[in-house]
Amino acid sequence: MSEPSLPEQIANELRRDILRGTLVPGAPLKERDRALEMGVSRTPMREAIRILSQEGLVVLRPARSPLVADPPLSDIMDHVIVLRALEELSGELACTNATEEDLDKLRAINAKFESEFYTADRLVSFETDMSFHMAIARASHNYALADTHRSFLARLWRARFLTSTRRRNRQTVLEQHAALLDALCRRDRAALKTAFDAHLGHLADDIRKVFEKEQT
Amino acid sequence: MSEPSLPEQIANELRRDILRGTLVPGAPLKERDRALEMGVSRTPMREAIRILSQEGLVVLRPARSPLVADPPLSDIMDHVIVLRALEELSGELACTNATEEDLDKLRAINAKFESEFYTADRLVSFETDMSFHMAIARASHNYALADTHRSFLARLWRARFLTSTRRRNRQTVLEQHAALLDALCRRDRAALKTAFDAHLGHLADDIRKVFEKEQT
DNA sequence: CAATGGTTTTTGGTATACCAAATTTCGAAA
DNA sequence: TTTCGAAATTTGGTATACCAAAAACCATTG
After folding, report:
1. Which CATH number is B73-214's, of 3.40.1350.10, 1.20.120.530, 3.40.190.10, 3.30.470.20?
2. Which member of A144, B48, B115, B173 has the greatest number of CB atoms within 10 A?
3. Which chain A residue lies closest to B82 (C-alpha atoms)?
């Protein structure tokens, strides 16, 4: 098992801070201060910031401090649209390419998700949610697709995290995951597409609601 | 007009060398030597290499020299599959979102492509080809989509470049571009999807042929 | 008091120095 | 002659030093 590199570790830490809200959207990320604060030099800190920029969590400005990203609703919706296309393609390919091991893995993740539902804190449950979707993408056996899909999930991380506040949403997600898993096991392309549409339509609605509520 | 940053300039230069074949696939990119050679320090050279790795033109190995990428045929085909999905989505969105200016721009690029057809060298004609596809993606008015699309075009750059050798292919491309433009101007989703399928199916066939021929 | 211009400070970009891991080289032993 | 291992070298990773551009501050002036 290879340890993550120093820049990746730093990126992970910053990412958690951003998702948890310790670093608020719009705040500048002064690389010197952050580096000192975390006991590393500017070089790996710079690389970490590039990683997060690639994930859309921070925005770079030439010759200025990078900012914690604060994308407008329209941007997020654009991402959801692309994510839907990517997930539908994943599903289609997975219906023909998924092995039994792939399906077993999915079933295991889904079981974990269900068992965590009542106990785990949001971030943990949320990461299991993510890994479920990534496992479907990987079942397509198309690495380029899985990688791009992962990148879009990451970009929507914060928005999705915000929508996971309410228990009711998480209940719906539970049912939708079951529907996805069932359709894939039956290798039923049409049902899988329908399930993805429902899932992402629901996500889009939730995000819209959160944005409206935030408009205070 | 903002000048590209130093790392971007370096990345551009390296990219040309890779596409032109000056840097052959599989060759190591020693950052110290390259930096010295180009009269810059290692820091921006490192960043440039990260950019190219993000584009899939070089592969990073922990604690080892990065290599010029040499993807197997299956990898490239995976990329074509995703590119098709992205272009179809672009087309669909562009049919509703494209403005008249967008269409004018496309017409202009297409005219440029036609006029260059007999005169320009491969790389120039090729870049016009790329810009045509990127302009369609931008006409979707979905920035995330256009950006991802651009990234996939870049990853397929070398493979596409290799297929552009034969005049006959380029003739076909000319006709297919006309079909794409026509369908989009008529805002005919179905026709546009058909045209994209034909275009990318053709591309996949060509790449396969080039790989078979290279198998010497 | 507000506006302006110049000076100081802050901060990202680049170059360089240093370190540790990986590779290569080369000689000793079987 | 071949093989194995230790020393030397190469090379990516990290820390630091330096520079130029941007921002903040402040005094001067209308």
Report:
1. 1.20.120.530
2. B48
3. A145
